[in-house]
Design goal:
- It is a single chain.
- The protein is an alpha/beta fold.
- It has a domain of 168 residues: 3-Layer(aba) Sandwich (Rossmann fold).
- Helices cover 39% and strands 24% of the residues.
- Helix 4 packs across helix 5 and helix 5 packs parallel to helix 6.
- Bound molecules: adenosine-5'-triphosphate (ATP).
- One of its GO terms (cellular component) is plasma membrane.
- GO terms for molecular function: ATP binding; ATP hydrolysis activity; transmembrane transporter activity.
- Pfam families: ABC_tran.
- It comes from Streptomyces gardneri.
Length: 251
């Protein structure tokens, strides 16, 4: 896959907060359309920084980020906001939903922000999205009446509603029990397999990574390895190896 045909392409991306040591150091990554990629590494290795740079939430200090061929550096602040709103979906660990809105309204929010008119068509899209995550019957409920796993499923419906080019998920299952987490990961997997979506998942969890097509490993801001079709044991071994490498360097 060339960079041009990719959903997401990072080329030599570095980022330092306030001129300190690089949190991300010359990372290159090409994610083809219809692929599910896990970004892994220990706490502080730069996973969230990679996601923030890739999603246009943070401007890297060096390197190029392209989403669907658009070089994010060519966009001014308003253009970057539009890109995040129209072409990218987000699922975070928590605080995903607006508590003042019901579930259906939460799902329609990205469409409304993108200029769609309220009405039957919009509600139909929200309900179809909710049905896909098994929550059509909770459409008129408020988020606080939902369990953590149900809220994350609503967040996934919302992240997918505008058919984004890339969905960025930052530890979306960290607060969930293993069974509920598996349900949420299965939904992301289905979005890739059945709807051709592209998902970048930040996680420290080898079980979560085993749902993806490819795991990439960060250590001290650098990309130190990757695994195709990762399984749990392979991911644990790779994480152990990169930690060992780090210790060897630190000594
Ligand atoms: N806003 C910030 N200002 C200054 N330094 C930051 C900021 N955010 C992150 N860092 C630093 O950048 C480095 C990478 O952090 P990052 O949050 O990307 O790691 P992570 O792998 O996502 O960690 P975790 O798994 O704990 O969330 C760390 O050294 C961190 O302290």
């Amino acid at each position: 896959m060339t960079e041009n045909g990719a959903a997401l392409a990072l080329d030599g991306v570095s980022h330092s907060y306030g001129g300190g040591a690089p949190a991300l150091d010359a990372v290159s990554l090409v994610v083809p359309r219809g692929r599910f990629v896990a970004v892994m590494g220990r706490s502080g290795s730069g996973k969230s920084t990679l996601l923030r740079c890739a999603a246009g939430l943070e401007r890297p200090t060096a390197g190029t980020v392209r989403i669907g061929g658009t070089d994010l550096a060519t966009l001014k602040s308003a253009g970057l906001t539009r890109l995040r709103r129209d072409r990218v979906g987000f699922v975070f660990q928590s605080l995903n939903l607006v508590s003042a809105l019901n579930v259906r309204e939460n799902v329609t929010l990205p469409l409304l922000l993108a200029g769609a008119r309220e009405g039957r068509e919009l509600d139909g899209r929200a309900l179809a999205g909710l049905a896909a995550v098994g929550l059509a019957d909770r459409a008129e409920d408020v988020p606080e009446n939902l369990s953590g796993g149900q809220r994350q499923r609503v967040a996934i419906a919302r992240a997918l509603v505008n058919e984004p080019e890339v969905v960025f998920a930052d530890e979306p299952t960290a607060a969930l029990d293993p069974v509920t987490a598996a349900g949420v990961l299965a939904l992301l997997r289905r979005a890739v397999d059945e709807r051709g979506r592209t998902v970048v998942l930040v996680t420290h969890d080898p079980v979560a990574a085993a749902w993806t097509d490819e795991a990439v490993f960060l250590e001290s801001g650098r990309m130190v390895g990757r695994l195709d079709r990762p399984d749990e044991a392979g991911v644990r071994a790779a994480l152990g190896a990169s930690a060992g490498q780090h210790l060897a360097v630190a000594r």
